[in-house]
């Protein structure tokens, strides 16, 4: 099932083929999507797929009157993931999620991602259950309008930000299409933003021998809203010849940190 273009899932071309409490399957195209900060091919869309798949299988296990809020996302890529993706430019990334353990006040989902039937990543998404929000908005059933462009920056509605220090910044402009049903930036979109700035922070000045993302760990602290001064910010913690670690955060239009992340990369 392809989703309407005026939803976060539809904008990024996610196709959900299986939607259940014990297994969910979906795919996302990644060909031609580059990091707007480096110009290099990006694996950030994998975080969008993971957030959807893991969150969906957790959401499908909710009880009467319950809703889900994601609290953690963890993505682990194989050493050759980027090469496998590059070797199959026309093939979407296909993912499958399953419940991991029992459900109580929270739930944990496990995901596996494949490119051309080769496993390139595993991931987990942790969610907790709340009462159904009173101001819950329903997603549209039919698409209106058109895509804003074909670049990752256009799809995410992000702009390269200016900084006077060593940090790497992307500004998250307001775009209602990128919001989830509770009116905040979709968790997959914000996770992508964190991967983009984290990867760019580690690869500043080294476009010919880039460090490739190996893991991304995201904590969702509070709702993240775009617009005004909302942005993604990353700084390198360690940038060596063979590996690097960056810390990233998403700061909302209210100036408060909404998401925290740590990205590890290897040459």
From TrEMBL:
<keyword id="KW-0378">Hydrolase</keyword>
<feature type="domain" description="Thioesterase">
    <location>
        <begin position="183"/>
        <end position="257"/>
    </location>
</feature>
<dbReference type="InterPro" id="IPR029069">
    <property type="entry name" value="HotDog_dom_sf"/>
</dbReference>
<protein>
    <recommendedName>
        <fullName>Thioesterase domain-containing protein</fullName>
    </recommendedName>
</protein>
<dbReference type="Pfam" id="PF03061">
    <property type="entry name" value="4HBT"/>
</dbReference>
<dbReference type="InterPro" id="IPR003736">
    <property type="entry name" value="PAAI_dom"/>
</dbReference>
<dbReference type="InterPro" id="IPR006683">
    <property type="entry name" value="Thioestr_dom"/>
</dbReference>
<dbReference type="GO" id="GO:0016289">
    <property type="term" value="F:acyl-CoA hydrolase activity"/>
</dbReference>
């Amino acid at each position: 099932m392809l989703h309407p273009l005026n939803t976060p899932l539809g904008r990024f071309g996610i196709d959900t083929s299986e939607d259940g409490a014990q297994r969910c399957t979906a795919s996302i195209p990644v060909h031609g999507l580059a990091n707007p900060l480096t110009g290099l091919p990006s694996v950030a869309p994998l975080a969008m797929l993971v957030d959807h798949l893991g969150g969906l299988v957790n959401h499908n296990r909710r009880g009467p009157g319950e809703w889900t809020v994601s609290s953690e996302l963890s993505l682990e890529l194989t050493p050759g993931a980027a090469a496998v993706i590059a070797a199959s430019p026309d093939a979407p990334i296909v993912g499958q999620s399953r419940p991991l353990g029992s459900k109580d006040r929270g739930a944990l989902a496990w995901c596996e991602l494949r490119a051309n039937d080769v496993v390139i990543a595993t991931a987990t998404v942790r969610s907790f259950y709340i009462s159904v929000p009173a101001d819950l908005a329903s997603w549209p059933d039919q698409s209106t309008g058109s895509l804003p462009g074909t670049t990752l920056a256009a799809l995410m509605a992000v702009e390269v930000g200016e900084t006077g220090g060593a940090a790497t910044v992307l500004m998250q402009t307001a775009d209602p299409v990128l919001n989830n049903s509770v009116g905040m930036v979709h968790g997959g979109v914000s996770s992508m933003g964190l991967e983009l700035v984290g990867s760019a922070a580690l690869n500043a000045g080294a476009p010919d021998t880039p460090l490739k993302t190996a893991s991304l760990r995201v904590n969702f602290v509070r709702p993240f809203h775009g617009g005004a001064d909302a942005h993604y910010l990353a700084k390198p913690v360690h940038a060596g010849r063979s590996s690097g670690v960056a810390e990233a955060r998403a700061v909302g239009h209210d100036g408060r940190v909404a998401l925290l992340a740590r990205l590890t990369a290897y040459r």
